[in-house]
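Rotation project, supervised by the postdoc (A.L.). Task for the rotation student: set up a whole-complex structure prediction and record inputs and outputs verbatim in this book. Inputs entered:
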Amino acid sequence: MSLTGRALLVLLILLSVISLVVVLADWHRASWPHWVKNVVRFTLLGVNQLTAVALVFVLANDAGGFYSSWSDLLGLSNTGVTRHSVHRLAQPGPTSRLRGMTNDAFASPGQRTHRGQLVSLTLDGVASGLRVPLDLYLPPQYFQPAFARRRFPVVEVLGGNTRQPRYRDPVRTAHLYLDLLRTRHARPAVLVMMNSSLGRHRRQPCTTAPGGPQPQAFLDTDLPLTLTKTYRVRPLGWGVLGVASGGYCAARLSLLDPNVFYAGAAIDGYLTPPHTASASGLRRTASTQHDPVVADLDNLLWRLHNMPVPPARILTLTTRDAAPSVVRQVSALQALARSPLRLTVPARRPSSSLAGQRTALSWLTNHLPTPTPVLGRPKSRG
Amino acid sequence: MTLTGRGLIAALMIVTVLLPVLGVAIWRRCRGGRVVVGVQRVIIVLMCQLAALALVAALVNDNNYFYTSWGQLHQALTQQFSGVGQSGQPSQQATGTSTPKVRPSPGVLAPSVPTDMDPASAGRIQVHSVTGTPAQWSRRGRLESVTILGAISGLHEHAFVYFPPQYFQRRYATARFPGVEVMTGYPGNDIGLVRGLRYPDVLERLQRLGRARPMILVMMRPSVTFPRDTECTDVPGGPQALTFFAADVPAQIARSYRVKPVGWGAIGDSTGGYCVTKLAMTHPLIFTASASLSGYYFALRDGTTGDLWGGSPAVRHLNDLRWRMLHLPAPPVSLLIATARTEKGADGYTEALSFARVIRPPTNGTLLVSPTGGHNARTWSGQLPSALTWLSAQIARAR
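Outputs recorded:
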């Protein structure tokens, strides 16, 4: 009789009923001494206890599926000896691929220790399912002997929302940053420049995408996982700087992932993404636009109002060109910000996006951890 | 008298034997018509049965550490969960953001590596006690009883942290070790991972045999806002349980000890199996591999969870691991699905197989099937050495 079958259950129900009837009937012979009758009654009460325990156990076991058989229950089957069958499911697939070449027009290899190096790359991210062109700037310190065994922090730079797949002017940004380094207004970091559309012409790249490619995963998973394997960079404690919709990304990444993005700077970035029909390219297996919960979760102001405040560091800059709605949202952010969130909103507004980048890069790199030594034995990637 | 331990069991044994004795003593004292006497005697029988059931329940609980205190049991029996809605007023109880009164403990250990993170960060680890003496640690390892306070989620939970002997050996004085989160099912307590499934002992034996690398185990239960079963979910407007386990715990441990901040593993049974698989699938940067023993792969809702998704189908999908594997890019992590061929139920063999079938590259999946067994600790104990060996190999491979 199987431990989990119906036969056992029916049997136990019958036994419970029968033993109850028997004990209540209190059958005995008049010739029995008292103590015999009492012993019989005591035994019958004990039998009732046993049937109750057995019945409840079998009911619970059937509901929860704890023990599949008598041998499983009694420990007779030899599970101590590991004779499990192990199956490999699907071959390990492609990892993210990084391809590219150095931009020797910016700096020849001999000039790297003074000017740094600019590299044009394309990353096929597996966690996001996106292929994104990148421009990587390695600062001069990266090539200097004093930093030969140090891992650098990374700053993701998200260009403003244009229709171009690539970051608009990496050379200009690299020059700007090099200038800041030379005048000691910024600290050394690796810059990863890309367009906030992330190669797919999306207008709202960092909102929740419940289906299909995951743009946010490109920024918070593919880039850290891949760059730490190829370059001497830290796996966490990054910075992120963005303009317009890139600014929303920067604010969102630093609020939701403050361990990965230690500081974020948003230039003219909105905090409440407009969920309009122009967010094309989204394969809808569940519609975000009409899901009010997801809309709330994408709304950074709602999150600050209704959920625990994270220990993030954010800088918001609004230029003269910022839309009035953005200015309003930044004021709302200031009202909502409280410890442990550290929000910096400079009193003086930058005159242009470029000036904003200067301020932001300086602020960000001064708030990130300094290049840390490669710990442990050389082959470890701690 | 504690809920676990010999005291309660001995007392219940006495009651279980005593009640039938008393029942016999008053059997013939029942007065009244036949029906009234019958009813009285039925009550006697029921009382005896209840005592026996209570004894068995106490034995099972003692063995499995479902509830380790009267307070827990009381909470579990009296709480009702309708879920947290979209209102702008999150209940303090639901979010669990009330800061615990963290007293400075005389046993607080300074981190052995100076951290470069902001010391004013909101999270911390409170050490309650450690096992052994410093002379023993380098031979036998060390077990710590701690409370982890999450910096982002604001939630806190007790954990047992196991350090292998190598952590204290001079040769490894500057090395950072890989971390592994270990989870129980629901209900469950972390002590069950130490005394019942004996994770530290199994790992220590595997390390000595060279089948596993030295790893730090952080042993917890998934119900961070007990008695509610939050299923390691970031509840909209409610407790951010996923953030606690995926972000807060690894970061806090890496800040306080010589543990790597990324490249973690995770292993758990039942609800813990669901949790660890979700950790790896949603946070592939932090978690490189997870091992699920008799876990499930759908988004669960029952009387102990309430509504974990704010009523949103999209949020529910994002917590449904099978849906994620089918509709989102497959994450670059390694998943071990362990089950028993004879295991029935919603988290049994068919469920495990149905999820295993949809795993696709770049996710690296492995299915471990025990020929016999079920949803119980004995089966998991049998699978544990293989699962930990596998986990150690995956973590090493990803470095």
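Student's summary: Chain B has two domains: 6-64, 110-397.
Supervisor addendum: The domain at 110-397 of chain B is CATH 3.40.50.1820 (Rossmann fold).
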